[in-house]
Amino acid sequence: MFKKILIIGCGLIGSSILRAIKNKKLSKKIFVLEKSKKNISKIKKIKSNCKFIKTINKEIYDVDLVIISTPMSEYEKIIQKLNNTLKPNALITDVGSTKQNTIKLKNKSLSKKIHWILSHPIAGSEVSGPEYGNKNLFLNKWCVIIKEKKQNLKKLNLLKKFWKKIGSKVVLMNANDHDNIFSITSHLPHLIAYNLIKTAQDSEKVQRKNLIQYSAGGLRDFSRIAASNEVMWRDIFFSNDNIIKGINLFTKNLNTFKKIIQNKNNKKLLSRLSNSKKARRKIVQLKQDIAKPDFGRE
Amino acid sequence: MFKKILIIGCGLIGSSILRAIKNKKLSKKIFVLEKSKKNISKIKKIKSNCKFIKTINKEIYDVDLVIISTPMSEYEKIIQKLNNTLKPNALITDVGSTKQNTIKLKNKSLSKKIHWILSHPIAGSEVSGPEYGNKNLFLNKWCVIIKEKKQNLKKLNLLKKFWKKIGSKVVLMNANDHDNIFSITSHLPHLIAYNLIKTAQDSEKVQRKNLIQYSAGGLRDFSRIAASNEVMWRDIFFSNDNIIKGINLFTKNLNTFKKIIQNKNNKKLLSRLSNSKKARRKIVQLKQDIAKPDFGRE
């Protein structure tokens, strides 16, 4: 499918792409730019035959596809180097979790001769690092490709084909819709999980009790989500303005919830609690989770 | 261990106790009081040889142990009937999730001739009903027994032994500590999950987008918790005053979080996000969850 692919940043996502490319034989040659020596020795175990490079240099002049899978805060530096190195008409994509910020950056800084079509594969975990990567990470998972005006259709189709080959269900969306939707389905849940763990830690100090040892009743699941990579999530929280809207709506709902409890409003509380089941049924129906009950992972 | 046990309310928890009693042969005779006909036909499949009763009547006069596993809002009616029926010196326990309210109720309404020592097995799921019960539900899970002044030590030891026999790790605690601890490790997480799903549902209406289909990035996990039984959770939210304190602390932390994001305070945000990992490590260390990364349940 490709002669040469360059993966920049080879952690959980980058190394899963590397494994999937190897598995599906999607490229004759793969370059990997990864700064961490520890990671490099882990990536070597994949036996992908990739060539490690230390800097963006003329060796990668004629790659067909560049996949940036670093934290978003590194994009700006990377663009400068790609501008000076890539052949005209090259294709770049990324896997970042927010898109309006990246479009702004791209429009400001990327050479007009190069194409950058943004991707966001909806896959991941609370762990980081190439040792957790998996060739099937993207299998049957959504991959959002960002639709813009004046996009090169040939490149767009190529990118679609690439994600489909490694198992994703591709959906096209504009950056505004993307950032709105994922502020609610992903960014707010992570922020809330981080905030709940902070609240439990604070309570432990106030109560002077080792309460975390009794986490099996619910806190446990939030702690998993709140163990996600802090650099990646800092970049997301700083770059999606919709999160503030999400926090405000959440806070408004929480205040109402509190009043319902304080007023012992039976009817309103029951309707609130049972309404959640509708969302749950939809999530299972849409295969975003399995119906199997969870009694704790053992 | 017992001659006769009565289980009142035989859903997920009650039927798991029934299965465990049968499995460990802890009682010669088991009575089950369950109102739902549907549930009764499901309980029959357990083949526990239990005797179903329709009301609390003189047949259960001399049971050694009564286990109440109904929603807490039914306790008051049940106590009246037990007062009129049980032999002096009988032992009652329950499995409710809040304790100060139950102690008040017990002190007000229970006949002084009868012992009620409160239990709270920390086990469960988002599903309800006897079909989901499991004889190993309590295995290696905490069971809190509430310590009070003037408790009959012989009965207390008997109850401890009972929970240990069915696999629980027993811990003694006073009701105040219990309600404080579980307001943070269980009740607040559930309330927050319900509130997050409500916020996602509201956002879906505002955005007019089918955003729930993209739930795999985090919302999914909250939706599971927020699918829990609404009657049980209504009773919990109405009966633990500490939840309001929890909501207030959560809201205060959320406001600070919002400001940190709005001010793009890099250092504070990174320290907040990485601090969560400490709680996560502790939770795994204390065997409240496994370390295995979660990429979504499939």
Q: What this model shows, in words?
A:
The structure is a homodimer of 298-residue chains. The longest helix of chain A has 33 residues, at 175-207. Chain A has helices spanning 12-24, 37-44, 75-85, 100-109, 153-165, 175-207, 219-225, 230-239, 242-262, 266-285, and strands at residues 2-8, 27-33, 51-53, 65-68, 91-94, 115-116, 119-121, 142-146, 169-173. Chain A folds into 2 domains: 2-173, NAD(P)-binding Rossmann-like Domain (Rossmann fold, 3-Layer(aba) Sandwich), CATH 3.40.50.720; 177-285, 6-phosphogluconate dehydrogenase C-terminal like domain (6-phosphogluconate dehydrogenase C-terminal fold), CATH 1.10.3660. A 6-stranded parallel β-sheet of chain A has the order 3-2-1-4-5-6, covered by helices on one side. The first copy, chain A, has a 3-stranded mixed β-sheet with strand order 7-8-9. Chain A is globular and about 70 Å long. With 298 residues, chain A is an alpha/beta fold. At the A-B interface, helix 6, helix 7, helix 8, helix 9 and helix 10 of A face helix 6, helix 7, helix 8, helix 9 and helix 10 of B.
